[in-house]
Amino acid sequence: MDTNRVNRERVVRALNGWMMLVVLVGLLLADVALLIVQARSQNVPGLVACCIFLPMIAISLTGFFSLQPNEARVFILFGAYRGTVRDSGFHWANPFYSNGSQPGLLAAAAQNKLSGGRETAPARTTLGRNKISLRARTLNGDKLKVNDKRGNPIEIAAVVVWRVEDTAQALFDVDNYDYYVPTQSESALRHLANLYAYDGGEENEPTLRSNVDEVSRALREELQERLAKAGVTVDEARLTHLAYAPEIAQVMLRRQQAEAVIAARRKIVTGAVSMVDMALKELADKQVVQLDDERRAAMVSNLMVVLCSESEVHPVVNTGTLYN
Predict the structure, then answer these.
(1) Which is it for the CA torsion 286, 290, 293, 299, positive or negative?
(2) Which of 164, 235, 222 is nearest to 9 (CA)?
(3) Which of 69, 92, 115 is where one domain is finished?
(4) In a 3-state reduction of DSSP, which class is residue 244?
(5) What is the extent of the structural domain holding 271?
(6) Phi, psi of 279 (to 5 degrees)
(7) Do residues 219 and 158 touch, judged by C-beta distance below 8 A?
(8) What angle do CA 67, 19, 88 make, to 5 degrees?
(9) Which of 21, 22, 7, 25 has its CA nearest to residue 80?
């Protein structure tokens, strides 16, 4: 049986901090004054009560916290989730709400360093006292060397703009969402590169180089599906680097040049045939000259040479008759 439960954020409101500050300071002053009075009157029960009440007020004073715009604080009381405050300002809440951060952060960073990789996760996941930033963040991924749909090695990189949408999922459903996001982004980008050819696909087949918008849309959808369990929303995902791997870059460049030359030649020949056909029809319609099949073939050959030649053609003027 699956014991993992999907958590859902519950938005709650904390007490106004300024109001509670006035109340607690007033109680503290009143307790100190009462303590002095009880000490002078030597009232032992009252003195004991004042001494017990004094640390309670001191503990209550630790319940103040502030939130900036696009920040949230998650309330955890003895391991139980009590809600999330999203309102910015100065607040007061139960001082026994947990101040801990995600336990898997240091372990993930240490494991990553031991494996020889760079430190992907930041030094701290939360902002302290279970505060979570709701601001948009940018993940500028490293260049990855992968194989495209045809098996050609390519280099690819992407930038992802993301933000935390559900604080309960981000804090409780994954071990460390700051480490989870780049890991899943790299996995999604590798999978995407395997689904598309770099270039020169079949007819109407999308490619990585020619269909950037479609590829970016597919990357965003896959990332959103992967990161939804961490309470993360992907605002944008786009490719920032795309190139053949260095070992085949020169070969692929020559192939692209050859394909460009072939395409240009095909267009030149198509245009030349159209022009020759138009010339012969104009000569026939206006009865400028009557040509037999042999002379017509010679004219077609000459016109095709003139129109398709890469260098300048120098005409030869015939001073005699065409039939000599």
Answers:
(1) negative
(2) 164
(3) 92
(4) strand
(5) 250-308
(6) -65, -45
(7) yes
(8) 15
(9) 7
Average pLDDT, the chain: 80
What residues does 147 pair with on adjacent strands?
Answer: 153
DSSP 166-187: -HHHHHHTSS-HHHHHHHHHHH
pLDDT in tens, 238-254: 999 888 877 755 666 66
**For residue 47, which phi and psi values (nearest 5 degrees)?**
-65, -40
Task: Encode 209-246: b = buried (16+ Cβ within 10 Å), e = exposed.
Answer: beeeeebbebbbebbbebbbbbbbebeebebeebebee
pLDDT number for residue 53: 87
CATH number of residue 152's parent domain: 3.30.479.30
pLDDT digits (tens, 9 = 90+) for 90-147: 999 999 987 544 444 444 443 444 344 444 444 344 455 688 999 999 999 889 988 8
Q: Is the pLDDT of residue 293 over 60?
A: yes
In the chain, the amino acid numbered 148 is D
Whether the Cβ atoms of residue 155 and residue 144 lie closer than 8 Å to each other: yes
Tokens 């087949």 belong to 205
- Residue 237 has phi, psi (to 5 degrees) of -145, 125
Q: How many domains does the chain have?
A: 3
Q: Is 4 a member of any domain?
A: no
**Beta bridge partner(s), residue 162:** 137, 234
* pTM over 0.70, yes/no: no
